[in-house]
Design goal:
Number of strands: 12
Number of domains: 1
Order of helices and strands: EEEEEEEEEEEE
CATH architecture: Roll
Structural class: mainly beta
Helix content: under 10%
Oligomer: single chain
Radius of gyration: 15 Å
Strand order of the largest sheet: 6-5-4-2-8-1-9-10-11-12
CATH superfamily: YwqG-like
Length: 196
């Protein structure tokens, strides 16, 4: 079953809801992740509650925190699920708190320019901006790039697809394409890649 993620308008930067932008939420003591290629802090993209997925029951199995390097666009291989220019963390859905920004780095530079709620809906009204979708199969723009779990080596499960959003200045940048997030819940792993 597929469920659309519709633009629900502005929301608080640390709201514990499915959203794009704002502040990452993670277990206490989590450090802000850095790009494996350039070593600079990654930009925070989205907080995705897996409990919003069709077919999942409560309590939610976790949340995804999605990051991508925005320091050297096109040079840190942000589109790859394994090169280190992006990161998808699969976290528990409880006891999460805002991740502190690295020392000396302005938090505004680490996030998107706007924070938007992503409201799940079974149908997309004609006037709604679609930010992505849960479930179903990935709508690949190029070839199938389903990643394998680095722990169990099995193909990861397609979890969410993200679009760039309504405002190109403050939204996620996937080169006018789409991002695909896959997860392996038993191993606690997730992967992010994008195509254009």
């Amino acid at each position: 079953m597929t469920m659309f993620l519709l633009d629900g308008g502005p929301v608080a930067p640390d709201a514990p809801v499915t959203r794009t932008g704002g502040t990452p939420l993670a277990p206490a003591g989590t450090l802000w992740p850095a790009c494996a290629a350039c070593a600079a802090p990654l930009q925070f993209l989205a907080h995705i509650r897996l409990g919003d997925l069709p077919g999942h029951t409560t309590p939610a199995p976790g949340v995804l925190a999605l990051f991508m390097c925005a320091n050297r666009p096109g040079q840190c291989t942000q589109w790859s699920p394994t090169a280190g220019g992006n990161l998808a963390l699969l976290l528990p859905d409880g006891g999460l708190e805002p991740v502190p920004a690295p020392d000396g780095v302005d938090r505004e530079l680490l996030g998107l320019g706007a924070v938007r709620a992503a409201v799940p809906a079974r149908t997309a009204p004609g006037t709604a901006t679609i930010l992505g979708r849960f479930g179903g199969s990935p709508d690949w723009l190029q070839c199938d790039e389903t990643p394998s779990c680095p722990t169990c080596a099995q193909p990861m499960v397609f979890t969410v697809e993200l679009a760039e959003g309504p405002d190109p200045v403050t939204a996620m940048n996937f080169g006018s394409g789409r991002a695909y997030v896959h997860s392996c819940t038993p191993c606690g792993r997730a992967a992010l890649l994008w195509q254009c």
